[in-house]
Specification:
Strand content: 5-15%
Helix content: 40-55%
Strand order of the largest sheet: 4-3-7-11-10
Shape: elongated
Oligomer: single chain
Largest sheet: 5 strands, antiparallel
Radius of gyration: 27 Å
Number of domains: 2
Number of helices: 25
Length: about 675
Amino acid sequence: MHAAKVPGARGDLQLTGNNFYGTARCASWPNSPAFWCVVGATIALALRIALFDWSILAVQNFPNHDLAQGAGFFAINLHSIRMEGDIAWWKSNSFNGYAHYYQTFLSPLAPTPSHISFLIVAAVMRTLDHFHVVISEYVYYVFTTFVLLAWCAVAAFGWLVSQFCRQPLAIVFACIVYALSTIGLWDGAWFYFQEPATFSFLLGSAIALIAHQTRTRAILFLVAVLIQVASINYWTLYNLFFFVLFAGSYVCFFPTKARAALSSLLALPKTATIPTLAVCLLWISMIGSIAVEQGGRYTRPIAGGEKYTVQAVIKRSHFMSGEKTIASLGNPVAMFRHANENPMHYARYVGLITLGLMFSILLLRRDRIAIWLAVTLVGTAGIVFAPSPLIWLWAHIPMMDRVQHVFYFYANYVAQVVVMIAAVSIEAMLGRERSFRIAAYICVALATAELSVYFALASGLDRQYTERVIWPEMFPMTSAKREALLTPLPPLSRLTFEGGVAEALPIRVNIFPKNIFLQRNEVYALRGDAALLNEGVAGAPIEFQPLGGGRGPISFVAQDWGYNSFVFEVDAPSEGNLVVRQAPDPAWRIQVDNGSVKAEPIFYGLSISIPVLKGHHVVKMDYRPLARQLYWPASALLGLNIAILLSGFAFRRELTAKPVQPIQVG
């Protein structure tokens, strides 16, 4: 006799048999849910590339919507590693420079320097460079974003779904719908894949541990926590409400298992938990120092020059109405009717087949898993409409004034829960008679075909809008631009602080070559006075101002020129001040002839004034925020901790409860 699932059985019962996989002991790899997550993600990624993303990977076109922005951060960081062995903490390409690290760590323009994917790609780049295989920074960006992280995002969602769907077809279905529906479209428009991948992996690992307590699952949860904590950005904080709702409601439905999961974590060796906690605290301290050092120094302007505030954002609540909420989940033509109104915001379709499967759950399955998902769906839909208590909480979460749509983007989580419920329906159909099993395969085939067409058409429409409205200065892709993107960035020019990167990297977005997304407060204060702003940022890179007054260019010889430090020689004709066209920042460490000096802000806080005596001088400017001292040790400890934890996979044994016995049928 084979153990099988009893229709209507409680969702927390252990099931085994020919088509179900026990969680007390892992099945062989080809028969495990994790294997089908890999298969599903690979199929989904192949479909995305074949339908649209191939042109981005082949550098035949620029990425859609916001994803071109990430290249301006990622490529600069890789180039800086190549040039000076460190990421770019300062960038001189915008109004005399800005704290590059503040945005690259805390914004979701991925891959962020704190994410494990960035660290791996940077290590691969350095290794290949050592063997004279030099690939352009931009190619690394599109591969990391549209292959590595895109695959991880789909696989992580499949991993999450596999915690309550064990049938291979259900897992593959969830992966395909995720990649080709509104979820994957939004990931490829502004979510950047990194945070969706990390967040789904954390949720899936948490649910896996609660569902069944093994050493492997406890260790995997710690790995997920490490990756998420290290890569915290403002999307992470934005997603907290869904995490609390999704994981919290699961705990409420399965309280006994939740207590057992906590016990399993406490039962882990202290050699695993204490280092993990220490590394998490180190990363939190480092990221916190970034927010403290730079959080009050920048302003995000909006249309009309108004300062970006929580109150200004809340006024946009009217933006979330009608087809821009969850009403378009079953409307494939909404974005095409609004082709001239940022159509990707109307691309919310999950497929008629998916919606039909979601509603069929009422007939196919009514256990605790189905009820939990239904409750989560209703709760997430409620968040979308931003009720007043949640608005109050949102307004008091740090950095939420960077997100202009309040809970508008939670429609993406509504779509994800819809796909989860549809996958549960597929699994229920596969557990019934032959006609239901055949219908399940037909549904998956039809959903794949339908969403493939939708994905291709929606992506094409978004490209047209991106080219015409969002980044018209960057498009179209030309042979000269393509050649530049395929060529590694050259060493920085020593004629200007900017280094000539803008000419070498033909990305034209609101963070590159000039960063107008976040502006230093001094720049924002002068937004209405072009003459004063120009006086502070225009002119020779270095000028000399005698004590008696006047100012003029002075020749200099660059000894060392990078993103984070500048060393140059000057001959001062008299006692006075060097006017350096770099923005003042507390993290600058400035030396003249190996002696520290205190620089003063000049020209409305837009430039630096360095006192010098008459004669020859060597001036060194080194940008050293606290995070720069912590970053590489923290990165090394992150990688080491993850490697040690993953080595624990060799020890597969129960930590708490004994395996639940299968239900014998027949």
